[in-house]
Design brief:
2 helices
């Protein structure tokens, strides 16, 4: 599985894939629990929060 890569980059790739998988599973669970309207509202609120946060830093 390592294909000649050093352990550091190999483990980093595994960790990134695990994190991506966990995010996908969490989103899947949210889709089971929440309606599309609720998911859309959460996405919009998150976008607005990030925008206001980045404006304060810049």
């Amino acid at each position: 599985m390592r294909k000649g890569r050093d352990w550091s980059s190999f483990l980093l790739e595994i960790a990134e894939k695990a994190e991506k998988y966990e995010r996908a599973k969490a989103m899947e669970k949210l889709r089971e629990i929440l309606s599309e309207e609720e998911l859309d509202k959460m996405a919009e609120e998150s976008r607005l929060f990030r925008k206001s946060f980045s404006l304060r830093l810049g």
